[in-house]
Specification:
mainly alpha, 3 helices, about 0% strand
Length: about 160
């Protein structure tokens, strides 16, 4: 049974002789008050412990929140740095590819020029060979034509 402050204020003790209080009643009441007061003190101590534990948890949560915030900021900064690094590297690779492509095109143009010059040279050589062969054939034809005229029995009697 809980005793309230109102109960304590309203408590009346019966009197025995000479207007005194019954010692057993007073002792019983004091025991009840002491028990309730002891329970209240224990409850207060428990609540203080719970408050301390909650405050400790709150500090832990605050520290974790701060740590997470720091981690988030660091992660965002690292992500930005990685993006910038990747962008720079992509630009470098692109420039290298462009240079390599330009060198390849230049080399292909040089090769094309060399091949065209070689083709022109081969055409010139072919034309010379054809001309020389034609001239040789004409000489042989003249030689054969002259020998045939000398071998012709009818050619000398005319």
């Amino acid at each position: 049974m809980r005793i309230t402050p109102h109960d304590i204020r309203q408590q009346q003790f019966s009197s025995k002789m000479f207007k005194g209080y019954d010692p057993q009643e007073v002792d019983a009441f004091l025991d009840d008050v002491a028990e309730d007061y002891e329970a209240v003190l224990k409850e207060v101590a428990l609540l203080k412990e719970q408050i301390a534990a909650q405050e400790e948890r709150a500090r832990g949560v605050t520290e974790r929140e701060r740590s997470l915030q720091d981690t988030l900021v660091t992660t965002q900064r690292l992500a930005e740095e990685m993006k910038n690094h990747a962008r720079r590297e992509a630009e470098l690779i692109l420039r290298e590819a462009e240079l390599t492509g330009e060198k390849s095109v230049e080399a292909a143009r040089g090769e094309e020029g060399r091949i065209r010059a070689e083709i022109i040279g081969l055409k010139r050589t072919r034309r010379q060979v054809v001309e020389e062969l034609t001239a040789t054939l004409e000489r042989y034809h003249r030689l054969l034509g002259g020998e045939l005229e000398g071998d012709d029995p009818d050619a000398g009697t005319s």
